[in-house]
Design goal:
Blueprint: E1 2-7, H1 14-22, E2 27-31, H2 35-43, H3 58-67, H4 85-103, E3 107-113, H5 115-124, E4 128-135, H6 138-147, H7 152-171, E5 177-182, H8 183-188, H9 190-201, H10 240-243, H11 246-256, H12 260-263
Parallel strand pairs: 1-3, 1-4, 2-3, 4-5
């Protein structure tokens, strides 16, 4: 079993990449299945990307059936509020195995984006981890947060720290195989970038991957665009260029200068 982890900051295109990869006949995308998000998905009976509630989705019902205790006890949960990180890690590995069985997929795509969680899972062994570091221009990320009430400077600092931490881990000894992908390249040359990811995870590129609405997806959480996958257009969002002022742009230059070689962008 292979698991492709998408790491990066929020608003970097992870839902789009997850849907594209999950459109492959030998891959399945599950969205954000960290403990908090997955347990909330089940407990609150949230909407799956297939447009059925969690309790009505045949895919997740099939996954949970495989995880049901022989004695018919408590329904499976990752245990966000009551278990240790190590126990949650083992539950997550059980979840991955059940997803692989239910979908017959060779590669599971996980876009939870949480670094510490990915580190624990990769260290646990028992599967082949592949890490995709998805990076978007910090000005676009911080502007997306600001539009939704976030503070621009705080969002920019979080973008810098998140991606530096990811790079430091991936550059270290014993880190899993990794591939760097830029959001801007994904939108400008989607087929080329998706083909490179397919090569990285060890499957052949398939043309239907570029039409994400041709396959029913079962992603947990993520961008709202996942509910409109049949009409998904891959379009580069650079509206930040029209709206950011000189003070915000100068702040970005000041914060990124010591890390330009690692993160790029100018």
């Amino acid at each position: 079993m292979k698991v492709a982890f998408i790491l990066g900051d929020g608003y970097s295109g992870s839902t789009l990449l997850d849907l594209l990869l999950g459109s492959h006949s030998r891959m399945t995308g599950v969205g954000e299945v960290d403990a908090e998000a997955f347990d909330a998905f089940l407990n609150e009976d949230q909407l799956c990307t297939c447009l059925f509630r969690a309790s009505e989705c045949h895919f997740w019902k099939g996954v949970l059936d495989r995880l049901r205790a022989p004695d018919g006890g408590e329904e499976f949960r990752l245990g966000a509020s009551r278990l240790s990180p190590e126990e949650i890690t083992q539950n997550t590995l059980r979840l991955f195995r059940a997803v692989a069985e239910a979908s017959s997929a060779e590669v599971i795509v996980d876009s939870s984006k949480r670094l510490r969680r990915t580190q624990l899972l990769a260290a646990a062994g028992g599967f082949s981890p592949k890490v995709i570091h998805l990076l978007r221009d910090g000005r676009g990320v911080a502007y997306s947060y600001a539009k939704r009430g976030g503070e621009f400077r705080e969002s920019l600092l979080n973008w810098k720290n998140t991606n530096i931490d990811i790079r430091n881990w991936l550059d270290g000894e014993g880190a899993p195989e990794r591939l760097a992908v830029r959001y801007e390249d994904l939108c400008a040359r989607p087929a080329e970038v998706v083909r490179s990811v397919c090569d990285f995870v060890g499957v052949g590129w398939e043309p239907q991957m570029m039409r994400v609405g041709r396959k029913v997806h079962h992603n947990v959480r993520g961008n709202e665009m996942r509910f409109k996958s049949k009409n998904t257009l891959i379009k580069l969002d650079e509206t930040w260029k029209e709206h950011l002022g000189a003070d915000e742009l100068n702040l970005f230059e000041e914060l990124i200068e010591p890390f330009r070689q690692q993160l790029g962008y100018c």
